[in-house]
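anyone seen this seq b4? input:
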Amino acid sequence: MKFISLSQFQVIFLLAFFTPNFLEASPKKNSVTQSETKIYTVIEFESTFMNRRKKEILKTLGEPDRKSQVQEKEVWKYNQIVKDMEQIWDQNIMFDFGRVNYIWSDQPKAGKK
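predicted toks r here
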C-alpha cells in the first residue's frame, strides 16, 4: 500500500480548495443584457449616444426593449436606463439615416426609485 506524502497532500488540498474560487472569479463573456446595463444620467446618456450608429448602440446597450416608428423614423426604447430627478426613466432613441438624431425620456413608472 502506497501512502502520499504530506507535501503531496498539501498540493491536492490547495488545488481542491482554491480551484473553484479561481473558476468562479473568471469574467463571464455573455452578451449584454438589460440587467447588466449601466444606469446613466441624462447628460451621460446624450453625450455617449448622440450621433452614434445603430450598431454602436447595440454593442453597448444590447437589444432595445421595444422598437417602433415615430414620424417615419425608427425609435428604440430602453426601459429604466436613465436616472433624472432621483427617479429611473425610460429612454427613447430616434434614428435618422442609421444614426441617433434625437433622444427623449418617458415618465418614470409610479412608485419606482
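The beta strands are 40-41, 66-70, 73-84, 87-96, 99-106. Residues 34-106 form a domain with the Beta-lactamase Inhibitory Protein; Chain:B, domain 1 fold (CATH 3.30.1450.10). kinda curious what u guys think
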